[in-house]
Amino acid sequence: MKKAISVLSGGLDSTVATSYYKDKYNIYAITFSYGQKAKQEINASKKICKKLGINHEIIDLSWLSKLGSSSLTTENELPKISIEDINNQEICEESADKVWVPGRNLVFTAIALSFAESLGAKAIIVGWDKEEANTFPDNSKEFLESFNKTIAIGSKKSVEIKAPLIDLNKEEIVKLGNSINAPMELSYSCYDNKEKHCGICESCIRRKSAFMKSGIEDPSNYLETEHT
In angstroms, rounded to a whole number, what is the distance separating the alpha carbons of residues 116 and 106? Predict the structure, then answer.
């Protein structure tokens, strides 16, 4: 079986993407500790890899937290939106700007390429998707195609980035995850670092909305105070 490197954050998207390829590749998952508040996602990635039976390594990129002023890596307040707001492009753009970590996916994917070359892997698995691409350009199909062209030019190895969710929104991702028995219940999407999902940050809202629209039971634990 060919080898693949998975960029696994521990979130919903990367969990489904990794699960999608678990029977097609011998997967080596890498998770980045980049100074994010949400250390719970690192714990989630460990559980997901154990469940899927794949190798896993956590990579220290704490220096990344010193760049920019992202709410994910600083004491700046995390943006909160409502379910009604997730289709408001202006509000979502403002939220995305507040959590943007400079060059994060560029850095993560370049490091994944280094792992792929050194381990003889043919693919890099990422959880980039259509819905996130609306406000995060480093999740877009254009970014995917451009990065694959860069690899083709700049790498001596034959490696391709695989993004099985690139044309899917969150609802479709949940449906796909359910159909392939992805351990979505182990994933962690919250921007905060509470034991349970806060239920009010944009990432939590999109997660809740996706399960609600899909008609699939949400296995996530949210803070009880946010159920009201």
Answer: 15
Q: In terms of Cα–Cα distance, which of 170, 175, 151 is closest to 161?
A: 151
Rounded CA separation 84/158 (Å) = 44
**Per-residue pLDDT tens over the stretch 55-65:** 999 999 999 99
Q: Whole-structure pTM over 0.85, yes or no?
A: yes
DSSP state of 30: E
Biggest CA-to-CA distance, the chain: 55
Q: Is the pLDDT of residue 140 over 50?
A: yes
43 Ramachandran zone, left/alpha/beta (phi>0; psi -120 to 50): alpha
In the predicted model, what is the mean pLDDT of residues 132-161? 97
Contact 11, 32 (CB under 8 A): no
Which CATH number is 127's domain given?
A: 3.40.50.620
Q: Please, what is the average pLDDT of the chain? A: 94
**81 contacts 90 by C-beta, under 8 angstroms:** no
* Residue type (1 letter), 116: A
**Tally of domains within the chain:** 1
State the residue range of the domain holding 164.
3-226
